[in-house]
Design a protein that fits this description.
Number of domains of chain B: 1
Oligomer: heterodimer
CATH class of chain B: Mainly Alpha
CATH architecture of chain B: Orthogonal Bundle
Strand content of chain B: 5-15%
Radius of gyration of chain B: 16 Å
Number of helices of chain A: 5
Structural class of chain B: alpha+beta
Number of helices of chain B: 6
Largest sheet of chain A: none
């Protein structure tokens, strides 16, 4: 096999590995984003007890994913970025509520939840893809 | 009917002890490489996801999976969440062999780059 064929095979491998990693990432990021918005909504609605229901739904939706990610071999650097992005999502949840409360908006927790969901989908998800797709 | 036979062959092949094969040549087939690339970042991948990602048919995918399972590279198991579905996993031996194969590919590319470098 010549180097051009080898390079083409490696390129194909990387593309397919990313395809699989992206499918796994949508599952976890989608369910986490849904959880963040759900927690915001039930907090605003003064129905904190519903958080338990959301967690059950979250674990059920996560378990039905077509691709179950392998985190045992996760890239440590991207694992750090992923953990950092989840902290950033939590920070967004809290910090976005401050101006919302100052402005007397009716659903500050929901707005915070939406901000957290945006951080999860736009920042945490790509980090997760890089974390599990190592090449 | 055909699908049932394919499924039985895959599950039986997964239960058989792995045979000794020349993995370099064995993994070199584009379809097998594609399957293993999709499996590599995952603990398990659904059969339907593999089929759709590869744009292939049930029977063609089953045939490749049966060969990979007989070689001890992958394992096909019933989906715990959905008893009708099947999921495919790389075995530990398969993961090691596939990584070794990728390292060989990288060496070929690196050697060529070394030659091309001024």
């Amino acid at each position: 096999m010549d180097h051009q064929e080898a390079a083409a095979r490696l390129q194909e491998h990387r593309q397919l590995e990313r395809t699989s990693a992206r499918a796994a990432s949508w599952s976890i990021a989608g369910s986490l984003a849904g959880l963040a918005v759900g927690v915001g909504i039930v907090t605003d609605a003064d129905m904190i007890w519903l958080v338990g229901v959301f967690v059950v739904l979250w674990s059920a939706s996560f378990g039905r994913s077509a691709v179950k990610a392998r985190t045992a071999d996760a890239d440590r650097r991207w694992l750090g970025f992923f953990a950092g992005s989840l902290l950033a999502a939590f920070a967004a949840y809290v910090l976005v509520q401050l101006p919302a409360r100052d402005a007397d908006w009716p659903v500050p927790n929901t707005i915070g939840g939406l901000a957290a969901a945006a951080v999860i989908l736009l920042v945490a998800r790509p980090c997760y893809v890089r974390m599990i797709a190592r090449s | 009917m055909g699908d049932d036979l394919d499924e039985r062959a895959m599950l039986e092949a997964s239960a058989d002890p792995p045979q000794v094969v020349r993995l370099d040549e064995f993994l070199h087939t584009p379809a097998r490489l594609a399957i293993l690339s999709l499996l590599s970042p995952a603990e398990s991948v659904g059969f339907a996801f593999l089929r759709e990602s590869l744009g292939t048919t049930d029977s063609a995918l089953s045939k490749h999976l049966t060969q990979l399972a007989r070689a001890g590279v992958v394992r096909v198991v019933k989906n715990e969440k959905d008893r009708r579905g099947r999921v495919v996993e790389l075995t530990d031996e398969g993961r090691v062999a596939f990584r070794a194969y990728l390292v060989e590919l990288e060496k070929i590319v690196a050697r060529a780059r070394g030659r091309e470098a001024p």
